[in-house]
Specification:
single chain; 147 residues; mainly alpha
Length: 147
Amino acid sequence: MAIPTQVTANMDDPEEHALWVLMGAIMTPDGSALITAEECLRKASSIITRAGYRHHPELQEIKQIIPGGAESVHWMGVGAVEWVDIDTPDPDVRPAPVTDAIDLDAMSGSDLIRLAERLQERGVIRAPEDAGPSEDLAQVRTIEVDY
């Protein structure tokens, strides 16, 4: 399941009502995107919605531009979401033609694994939830936020 964008979010679901806003909206003092687990942002969306927040599109002054217009996992990436004036034209995105040129049945197991890894790198699909620890570890730092 991909993280919903404003267009695809279920506005009746408290976990999604504000989720699309939280993705890419929280920045550190140096302008870097703050990365946190989807589960935490879903809980935050639920709290915000249950506390009374409701989105009013007629009052919206800014919107998200998502790289390539793709509605996939990769748009969550650091700095990938750009907030622009509501009147900014959406990017011209043309979907790739659907083709059966790739015969998955003819691919070996190792070829399929490499294909899955490439799709994960591009954010098209997520890594399995039960995947073991990765050698590629993220750096974690603490920031202080004054409210």
